[in-house]
TrEMBL record:
PROSITE patterns: MFS. This is Transporter membrane protein. Keywords: Membrane, Transmembrane, Transmembrane helix. Gene3D superfamilies: MFS general substrate transporter like domains. The lineage of its organism: Bacteria, Pseudomonadati, Pseudomonadota, Gammaproteobacteria, Pseudomonadales. The chain crosses the membrane at residues 19-36, 48-66, 72-95, 107-127, 139-158. GO terms for cellular component: plasma membrane.
């Protein structure tokens, strides 16, 4: 979902302030990238990705349905990006742990191709929800926060590599 559209429509924050929120939140997301890379070495990359995306989905849902005061919106949106963007640092190495070297590039390409496909599905789905007369809050929940949470839960079906076994 386009963060500024959701923030403007759901919380009635000005476009200018939504851009400031977007910049600040992405800085927090960058910190998440560093933190999740470190955590992946401690508790396992699969666990970090799964927990991160689930917590991100919860933070985004909280932002959608929480109070419209600026501190709450900035805090929950930033937290959502921290847990959405951060796990990608662990994903870089998780992919190499998940596939044998003979198919690692193909496996990684298939995984990365899911992102744009998800964006198309989310865009189509949000358009359908909005065209049916619903609002941005519902569209962002169904095609933003909920898929983020479910993606994290699905990660726990993947193979786990214990960090202490990696050399």
């Amino acid at each position: 979902m386009l963060g500024t559209s959701v923030i403007i429509s759901v919380h009635h924050i000005s476009f200018e302030n939504s851009l400031i929120i977007l910049v600040l939140s992405n800085l927090v997301g960058y910190c998440g990238y560093l933190a999740h890379g470190w955590m992946g070495d401690r508790i396992g990359r699969r666990n970090v990705i799964g927990l991160g995306w689930m917590l991100g989905g919860l933070a985004f849902a909280g932002m959608l349905y929480g109070p419209s005061n600026i501190a709450m919106v900035v805090g929950l949106y930033s937290l959502g990006l921290f847990f959405l963007i951060g796990p990608y640092s662990a994903a870089l190495f998780f992919i190499s742990e998940s596939f044998p070297t003979s198919i690692r590039a193909t496996g990684g390409a298939i995984i990365h191709a899911m992102g744009p496909l998800g964006a198309v599905v989310a865009g189509f789905g949000a358009t359908q929800v909005l065209s049916a007369g619903s609002d941005w809050q519902t569209a962002a929940l169904y095609f933003g926060a909920l898929p983020c949470f479910l993606s994290g839960a699905l990660m726990f079906a993947a193979r786990h590599v214990r960090p202490e076994t990696v050399q």
